[in-house]
Amino acid sequence: MEQIRPFSTGGNYVNFQLAEDDVNRTADAYRGTYERLRQIKARYDPDNLLRVNRSIRPSGPSTLQRHAPAGSHRTVRTSRH
């Protein structure tokens, strides 16, 4: 791999990463937008529910408690046919 690096643009495809590749390799795939994508992920999916092997991890701690304050339980009713 190192022999072809001089001919590479420096990018990579997330779908072609290996299991042993770390988060830095994933960040490299998104180039300069990775931190912005992490902030968006933190806002819309703070608990990382929507994830795949190489997903963008949300920035900051989990905010599950913020979305479900104590005593605010909702009952979901389903109908049986």
UniProtKB/TrEMBL annotation:
User: What positions does the domain Berberine/berberine-like occupy?
Assistant: 12-57
| Domain of life, source organism | Bacteria
What organism is this sequence from?
A: Streptomyces cupreus
Matching Pfam families: BBE
Q: Where is this region: Disordered?
A: 51-81
Q: What is this protein called?
A: BBE domain-containing protein
Q: Give the InterPro entries listed for this entry.
A: BBE, FAD-bd_PCMH_sub2
Q: List the GO molecular function terms.
A: flavin adenine dinucleotide binding; oxidoreductase activity
